[in-house]
Write a structure and sequence with these properties.
Layout: H1 5-12, H2 14-22, H3 25-36, H4 48-70, H5 74-80, H6 92-104, H7 111-136, H8 141-164
Helix pairs in contact: 1-4, 1-8, 2-8, 3-8, 4-8, 7-8
Amino acid sequence: MKLNWLAILAAAFIPALLRLVWFHPKVFGNAWKTAGDVKTDRPRWASTPLQFGLTLVFGFLISVTLMSMVIHQIHIFSLVSAVPDFKKEGSETALWVKNFMAAHGTRHRSFGHGALHGAIAGLVFATPLLSSTALFERRGIKYILINGGYWTASLTIMGSIICGWA
């Protein structure tokens, strides 16, 4: 199975692009600042190019990780990668993988399926993760819902791109 690195790279841009819309003052920006007691003044190191660049790096890392959640066929390779003849042309394992991929390689490879698993990742992984931090920071439910919604939307779109763009 060949990985679509262009889809992974495209998905890496989603958190940065969605952030521009999601946290715009006319969308959730003002509510987010109020709910999180976010200060508008920035420290010197928090320049916009640095923030955007790091967001792209983190988006790439998230895309690579999300790929294993939305493309189920990757797990077949994980299962057989320790078999010594896995990559040997014509070996029993290589033939089994080839036949399996011929029969099932495109199963569940759609934009909708990727969106479903991306949304699940946002709801049951990202939102609880940031919520536990927000609770200890004494942030309110509004803050949690805005951030959880952002990550759920981001992961939904990212999963859709990664899984559907075969």
